[in-house]
Design brief:
By secondary structure, the protein is α/β, with parallel strands linked by helices. Helix content is 39%, strand content 22%. The chain contains 8 helices and 13 strands. The strands form 3 sheets. The protein has a 5-stranded parallel β-sheet with strand order 2-1-3-4-5, sandwiched between helices. The protein has a 5-stranded antiparallel β-sheet with strand order 9-8-7-6-13, covered by helices on one side. The chain has a 3-stranded antiparallel β-sheet with strand order 10-12-11.
Length: 236
């Protein structure tokens, strides 16, 4: 899961980034409301965690603007302002959860899991993607090709999701780095190639052609005449 943390409290932000990363998530962090809004509107995050008091734009205003622009990514607000009325204000602004500071990392992780379960069973952006004969359940990290179930690792799922959401278009190496790894990650020359190689091995086993095409000097692409985002009852 890719998570954006928006908090100008350096101590709290560092604690969240470290804990979420150790739990297997890809985490980006910014300190100001405007920076957080700009990144959140890119649509690459599975969840946001933000403070209520931010420089440049407070958390409530940020969430309202996200919802106004049609971005319904799950939002968990953390704040020392945790009286009943203040929590109600956060929920009415569009937050999906509201926890008081100081917080428990285990409770943050549990709330995120609950928010994503709710999202995956509610109307909204599909978490199951289809490109031709290939399906991907982003939440379960499970692909199917002609009915063959293909369990995927965390980063393999993130890479395949990017390729499928941009089916028919080139996904550059930089796009993969920014969406699958942290922004400050310094990769060696072949880290992406290694992940693509393993992903191809899993997807193409038993088939005569590869689904992931290399575009020399640019990146990778999945092609299909019919590209859609569907809910497939039997994929799980």
């Amino acid at each position: 899961m890719r998570i954006l943390v928006i908090d100008d409290d350096t101590s709290a932000s560092s604690y969240l980034v470290r804990g979420l990363s150790e739990a297997g998530h890809v985490v980006d962090a910014v300190k100001t409301g405007p920076d957080g809004l700009a990144l959140a509107l890119e649509g690459i995050y599975d969840a946001l965690i933000l403070d209520r008091c931010l420089h440049g734009m407070d958390g409530l205003t940020l969430v309202r603007e996200l919802r106004r622009q049609g971005e319904f990514v799950p939002v968990l607000m953390l704040s020392a302002m945790a009286l009943t009325q203040q929590r109600i204000e956060g929920l009415r602004a569009g937050c999906d959860g509201y926890l008081p500071k100081p917080f428990s990392l285990m409770e943050v992780l549990a709330r995120l899991e609950a928010l994503l379960r709710t999202r995956n069973h509610s109307p909204g952006p599909a978490r199951i993607l289809r490109v031709g004969e290939l399906y991907l359940d982003c939440a379960l990290r499970l692909a199917t090709r002609h009915g063959r179930r293909i369990p995927l690792a965390h980063r393999e799922t993130l890479i395949l999701e990017q390729l499928m959401r941009h089916a028919g278009k080139v996904v550059t190496r930089l796009m993969l780095l920014e969406s699958v790894w942290d922004y400050d990650f310094s990769p060696n020359d072949n880290v992406i190639d290694k992940h693509i190689y393993r992903l191809r091995q899993k997807l193409d086993e038993g088939f005569s052609h590869s689904l992931i095409l290399t575009v020399p000097g640019s990146g990778y692409r999945i092609d299909s005449e019919k590209t859609s985002k569907l809910t497939v009852p039997d994929i799980g």
